[in-house]
Amino acid sequence: MGTENVSNSTFEHGDGGGGDGNTTNYETQIMLNVYDLTPLNHYTYLVGVGIFHSGIEVHGMEYGFGAHDFPVSGVFEVEPKSCPGFIYRCSIPLGRINMAPSEFRMFIESIASDYHGDTYHLMSKNCNHFTDDISWRLTGRQIPGWVNRLARLGTLCSCLLPESLQVSTVKQLPEYHACTEEEDGTEPFSPTTPREPTESDDADQDKHLLSPAAGSLEVSFIKEVQR
Known about the structure:
This protein is an alpha+beta fold and 227 residues long.
C-alpha cells in the first residue's frame, strides 16, 4: 500500500492500550461507514460497482477526507453516518483497538499532514484511499475492495476516461472550523475569502461529489500536527 503501520505498539494492529499495570480499557470498534454518491448505485451495486464515499468511525466520531484549494489538512470529522451531501448505505466492522481518545486524536492529527485538501484526486487519492490507509494502520486490515473498485478500474483504464476525471482534483471550498481542544492555545486556520466561481467551476460542478458539502450538519476539519 506504500504506507507502514503505526510504529507505536500501543495501537499497532489494535494490540495496544496501556501497559500491564494500566487497568484502563479504551477498547473501541472501528467501523467503516459507506455512503452512496448517486442513486444509480442501487443498480450498479448488484454487479459490484458503484460510486461510494466512506468514513472511519472511531470513539463516536467519523473521519473522512475531502478536497479544497489549500495546502492544509483535508481530513474532517462529522457525526457518524451523517456526512452531509451523501446517502448513508451501510456500516462495516473493521476490527477493535484499545486506544485512548486523546491518543487517537494525536494519531489522526499526525495523519492529516499526509492528506492535504489540495492533493485530493478522484482516482489516486480519494476518501476511500484515506479510510483504507487508516484501517491498515490501526487494524492491519484493508477496507472491502468493492468500496473503491471504481477508482482502481479508472486508474487502469484512464485512457478511456474524460480528461477532467484523469487530472482534476475534486474541489469544493470548505467552511473551515476549528477542531482543537480547549487547552490548545493555538489559533485555528482560516482560509482566505473564497474565490469567485469561474466558467471552469460551472462546467465541472458535478466533480464536487467526493468532498463534504456545506449544509446544516457540522463538518470540522482536523488541524494537522507537523511531524
